[in-house]
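Take a record:
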Amino acid sequence: MLISALVTFLVVILVLYLVNMLPVDGRVKQIIRIIVIIIGVISLLRILGVWI
């Protein structure tokens, strides 16, 4: 369980880094970052058993 949570966290960090490298407008980057963070938090909650 802990390893899955760590892998999920690292994947979210990697995706956020890659989004930062995209040559798009700042507003679009911000929206993509928010979506990635929400998906990451939901995934972590599912792994930890807080959210079904």
